[in-house]
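request received
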Amino acid sequence: MTTEKSLIDSALRGWKSNVESADKLFVGLSPEQLEHEVAPGKNRLIYLWGHLAAVNDALLPLLGIGERLHPELDGMFISNPDKSVPLTVSEQSLKAAWQEINRKLYEGFSKFSASDWTKRHTAVSEKDFEREPHRNRFTVLLGRTAHLAYHVGQATLARPKA
Amino acid sequence: MTTEKSLIDSALRGWKSNVESADKLFVGLSPEQLEHEVAPGKNRLIYLWGHLAAVNDALLPLLGIGERLHPELDGMFISNPDKSVPLTVSEQSLKAAWQEINRKLYEGFSKFSASDWTKRHTAVSEKDFEREPHRNRFTVLLGRTAHLAYHVGQATLARPKA
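response:
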């Protein structure tokens, strides 16, 4: 394996492992369990799950993989804080969206060459990218991996006892 | 910048940004504030900070950068759960250790070439590494970056109101 490929492989493994941790935490929880707050007065598990799904969904256009699959999640899970708007998504439909989004993302990730990963993401202009070449797809992938880990760490606090 | 260098640059930026998030959260808290639990019955902030310092310190030998600087942290922050052994470290000495460890690590990181990053870490044998080449320094760096993010996410829940 070339050095470039090995570096990408490490990053994709990191992404996958954090998605799997989120899977283990959220998938299979009952609607009641998903209502638990991670700490008193803080976000509920359902909110963190929806938030991760929505943020991952937004990666599709940001990395140039494709259109958003579930833009309807943003109002509930990104632009408004938890408990401020009614959730019109069931745990079943959220699970389906979550899995569909992550599948589509991973398909897209797998097609990128090393040099594709170092190209600019779609929210930075060509001109800005000349000055700031770190605003590329790979930086986004690593940042969103850390974003997954950040909220998985929180959600773990409310995990039901086995 | 070559593709390899660009990929490494993204990863080092990610590491740095998560260390800085932890800095912002922990450095400057009073001893009383560091006693706060992130959720009822869960780890205290002082424990998470010490835990991150100890885990980062262990990266020095794991990545072949040098000897441990603060192995004395392990008994308090890795091998025993929070509140099970008395802490013999003040917030001032923890802060000094934290900064010293992260400085030494970053110095070491900066000296690695792209191909150094894809070499095995010191806890995997040459033989195992032939079969599992992803057990390399870069995978460790990304994993520990996610580990920082995971606990920063938790610590944020107990951040004192500004």
